[in-house]
Specification:
- By secondary structure, this protein is mostly beta strands.
- The protein has a domain at 40-149: Quinohemoprotein amine dehydrogenase alpha subunit, domain 2 (Lipocalin, Beta Barrel), CATH 2.40.128.120.
- 10% of the residues lie in helices and 41% in strands.
- The protein has two helices and eleven strands, in the order αβββββββββββα.
- It has helices at 2-13, 146-149, and strands at 18-21, 28-31, 37-39, 45-48, 56-62, 65-74, 77-89, 92-97, 104-110, 113-115, 138-143.
- Strands 4-5-6-7-8-9-10-11 form an eight-stranded antiparallel beta barrel.
- A hairpin with a 2-residue loop joins strand 9 (104-110) and strand 10 (113-115).
- It starts with a helix and ends in a 13-residue tail after the last helix.
Length: 162
Amino acid sequence: MRKLLVLVCLLAAGCGRESGQSANGGNRVVTAPAGGPVQTATLTGLYEGAGTPPSQLCIIAQGRTARFGLVTRRDGRPGCSGAGTAIRAGTILRLVMNGESACTIEARLDGGRVVFPASLPRGCSYYCAPGADGGGVVFAKTGGSREDALRARDIVGDPLCA
């Protein structure tokens, strides 16, 4: 029974990893936690982190730039939230917050994941709850469409990318 449990855990851990080339024109896809493919050719979509409720990042592409909204959560508590402009430069994703404090997060794109640096710039603390830190969050792409991005919700349940 223990071996079966270990096997199930190992199989479950494989979800969300790249599945390689697809038959739809060679676009790279990832496997969503629900098991279906998710497009990664564009930034548009919903990205989620671990936890209940999960941290969420939504991105909707608009030409060379995109708009985003994000909310991080740790242990079910609010962490950081904000919205702004996303700019892709190779494997770097610059998230520039719109607001009263200058905050640019230089995240790394890794397949279908967005990986935040271990710590965020000082100006980003303006967008975080007291004592919260948005550093080190990893978001996996769970949906690749505009409709998926529109499902993301902030800490009070309002749309992040409306």
